[in-house]
Amino acid sequence: MVTTESTPKARPKQVAEHFSISAMTLWRWAQNPDFPKPLKRGGVVLYDIAAIENWLEGAKK
Fold first, then answer.
1. What is the mean pLDDT of residues 43-60?
2. Which domain holds residue 14?
3. Which CATH number is 56's domain given?
């Protein structure tokens, strides 16, 4: 996991492990227009863990 600007970021595999989901589920979530967009730097994709947690909380309501 990478921490930038005090917000933890993680690669897709780490995100899937963090939320106990499959990579395919993460891909499906990412197809939702409301899902937090990842940062893409030099071929590396990083997701904001806190933003995904907030998105999940909003989805429960």
1. 94
2. 2-60
3. 1.10.1660.10
